[in-house]
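ok trying again, last paste got cut off:
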Amino acid sequence: MDFGSTLSISASGFEAQRRKIDVIVENLANMQTTRTSEGGPYLRKIVLLESAPAVDDFGSVLEESLHKVKVGGVRHDENAVKHVYNPGHPDADGRGYVAMPDINAVVEMADMIMAHRAYEASVTAFEATKNMALRTLEMGK
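nice, full thing came through this time. structure:
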């Protein structure tokens, strides 16, 4: 395994966790959105992470077993709607209930902290790899 593979794996972690944080921020920003362009309330989004081969030209057994993380997609949580009684709201139905996004700020913040920690771990791995590469170059002087 070379330094490039390690840096690529760390970079994929950056990208995936940044995307996850972006979706969490969008969920928090739309906690009160009752009407979207698709119709109905905003539906909470969930990032789907999956592994992807970190293949390069060397083709060794170790390198074939390496995987990096990638965003496989973002899906809507179809069950994330609650009905709140508010007959004065412009989006209230005939019974006075408004369909609201069922987004729990505490859950979203906990998810954001976990994504932030994972991002920090990727930064630490990236920095360690970079320092090893620099020290290797210094030994060659």
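cool. The CA atoms of residues 88 and 132 lie 63 Å apart. The chain has one domain: 3-139.
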